[in-house]
What does this fold into?
Amino acid sequence: MSNTLSHEERDAFKQEIFHSLHCALPGNIISFDPETQTASIQPGVRLGAQPYPVLTDVPVFMPIPYEINPGDACLVVFSDVDIDRWFETGEASAPNSPRRHSLSDGFVFVGFRVAGSPESNG
It folds into this structure.
């Protein structure tokens, strides 16, 4: 009995893992509770005919408004799927392409450190 997987078995296993990863997903706010600063979110993409379920009690990142400048620190998270249609329409739909976790599908969060501040000279 061999413990070695065939090429097809390895590919199927990798695909199963990739489809279970959720690094980030775009979405639309359904409701927002200002007291708890949480929201219900409808993910903005579908994979096949089955939509993702509504995400509830999701903490909302609410930075203090400030000017964004070159050198400011940020965080880019990458969507599990192509976000182009969602970005264009704001509607849940099938992705334009089969790409997954692509550099083309990032979101940026700012507010960690501002360029030129004492904290960024570390």
